[in-house]
Design a protein that fits this description.
Layout lengths: L2 H10 L12 H13 L7 E6 L6 H16 L4 E8 H4 L2 H13 L3 E7 L5 H21 L2 E7 H15 L3 E4 L4 H8 L6 H17 L2 E4 L2 H8 L10 E4 L22 H7 L3 E6 L8 H14 L3 E6 L3 H11 L6 E4 L6 H5 L4 E5 L13 H9 L2 E5 L3 H10 L3 E2 L5 H12 L6 H14 L1 H20 L1
Parallel strand pairs: 1-2, 1-4, 2-3, 4-5, 5-6, 6-7, 8-9, 8-11, 9-10, 11-12, 12-13
Length: 454
């Protein structure tokens, strides 16, 4: 297949780069690597490229916090991010994020993107991200692109071909496999073949690869995307700031409305945190809540999500006593206070699958740090292993009636020692803390910048 043909097909699946016609993909990648090796910038400035907005809770937690911590250690960063127009319209919030970044010496280039979720919108969003990336590389002294997820890597790959600046592929997932499991995007053999070819080149061309799980890291090292050259492969899970996420007494929860604190005081509280999406087993989660509420008269459910209306409808369908359920949204910077109100954090996800080998729930680290007992199912064996290793939570073996009943009985049997929460925090901090994650990122950055300076 020539690159002209590949580019045409990739355009159909929203993954494209501009390359010379007449050469094979393999030839261009090989020749480009050799030709650009001597031209790589030796600057320590790093450009972070992300399609996940940092004004969203997950983006701020997993991008902004990490980048600011790296900047504090002497690694200057600029962030190019796609942001929801609604988020950018929140002028006070936008200014607060800008000030936080500037205080650490981080530059931020936000780009508004189309949230209509049409194919045309997705293409335009990717194009805007790619153009902004290439523009930044051509106008700034950037030595490395830190590319978040597949969309960021596509933009970084185009930048590498046009400017010679290498990129770190911070994978975050198996994006193509997730779409396949959802029955979307790659429904024809031709599209899937082209997508797999592009995916392989994203991994092969990267100077380094960061994964969320050791499962995915072993896939990469084992040659799933071809033989490794000098790539650095490092696992960095979703992290939480263990200095910020700590268990606080009720009197110190100043970021939580007083009426909510009063309503949950002295209760057994079940927490559901985050988006209502396909990754989570919402019906099973609410059925577990119903069973616990039936067993424990003083139990309550706290749902923290921006999708308040959708969750209210789901709670009604599940037949929960709405008087015993609180549904509200919370800013990420207030989340440490909110989590101090939760005893059991429910993490019932889709069953383990090939796509989920690369996933870790963002909230898992926050639960461990804040003294919340995780009740977990699905995702992958690595997540379950960590819940067991921590020793404070519960892993369901099934989400049928019997499995949910066992989990409900475990939650209802109160009187567990608080020491378990301290031990869980100690056992997980070295893997899930922001400090540990930044240590790993710093090792990768040092290795990549040192290699280029030889």
């Amino acid at each position: 297949m020539t690159l002209t043909m590949a580019t045409k097909r990739v355009n159909e699946t929203l993954m494209w780069v501009i390359v010379p016609a007449g050469a094979t993909v393999e030839t261009v990648v090989t020749l480009a690597g050799s030709w650009l090796q001597g031209r790589m910038s030796q600057a320590r400035q790093t450009l972070y490229v992300t399609a996940d907005g940092i004004m969203e809770p997950v983006g701020f937690s997993q991008v902004a916090r990490v980048v600011m911590a790296l900047a504090e250690r002497g690694w200057p960063y600029t962030i190019v991010s796609l942001e929801k127009e609604g988020d950018l319209a929140r002028t006070e919030k936008r200014a607060a994020v800008q000030r936080a970044l500037e205080a650490k010496g981080v530059c931020w280039r936000p780009i508004a993107y189309d949230w209509s979720q049409t194919g045309q919108a997705a293409l335009q969003n990717l194009k805007a991200l790619t153009q902004a990336t290439v523009k930044e590389l051509r106008s700034s002294d950037v030595g490395l692109v830190h590319a978040r997820a597949y969309h960021g890597a596509l933009a970084a790959f185009a930048g590498w071909l046009s400017t010679g600046v290498p990129y770190l592929f911070d994978t975050r997932c198996y994006w193509i496999d997730e779409r396949l499991e959802e029955g979307r995007w790659f429904t024809s053999p031709v599209r899937l073949a082209v997508a797999r070819g592009v995916e392989q080149n994203l991994f092969r061309s990267a100077a380094g690869v960061v994964t969320l799980t050791e499962l995915q890291a072993s896939d990469v090292r084992g040659g799933r995307f071809g033989a490794l050259g000098e790539q650095v492969v490092q696992c960095v899970p979703t992290c939480a700031d263990y200095d910020d996420f700590v268990r606080r007494p009720l009197s110190q929860l100043t970021s939580v409305p007083a009426d909510v604190v009063r309503a949950l005081k002295g209760t057994l509280s079940l927490g559901i945190v985050g988006s209502l999406n396909r990754s989570y087993l919402v019906d099973e989660t609410l059925e577990l809540c119903r069973r616990v509420l039936a067993r424990v008269p003083h139990a309550r459910v706290l749902i923290l999500s921006a999708q308040t209306d959708a969750y209210r409808q789901a709670v009604q369908r599940a037949g929960l006593d709405e008087a015993r359920v609180i549904i509200t949204r919370a800013d990420h910077d207030a989340m440490p206070h909110w989590l101090s109100l939760i005893d059991y954090g429910l993490l019932l996800l889709q069953p383990a699958s090939p796509a989920k080998r690369a996933s870790v729930p963002t909230k898992l680290a926050e639960f461990f740090a804040a003294g919340v007992r995780p009740v977990q199912f699905g995702c992958n064996s690595e997540v379950s292993d960590w819940v067991r290793r921590a020793g404070s939570g519960f892993v369901l073996d099934a989400v049928d009636g019997a499995g949910l009943e066992r989990a409900a009985a475990w939650i209802a049997s109160e009187g567990r020692p608080q020491r378990e929460l301290v031990t869980a925090r100690e056992r997980t901090e070295g893997h899930f803390s922001l400090r540990a994650g930044v240590d790993r990122y710093e090792r990768v950055l040092r290795a990549l910048h040192t290699r280029r300076s030889r």
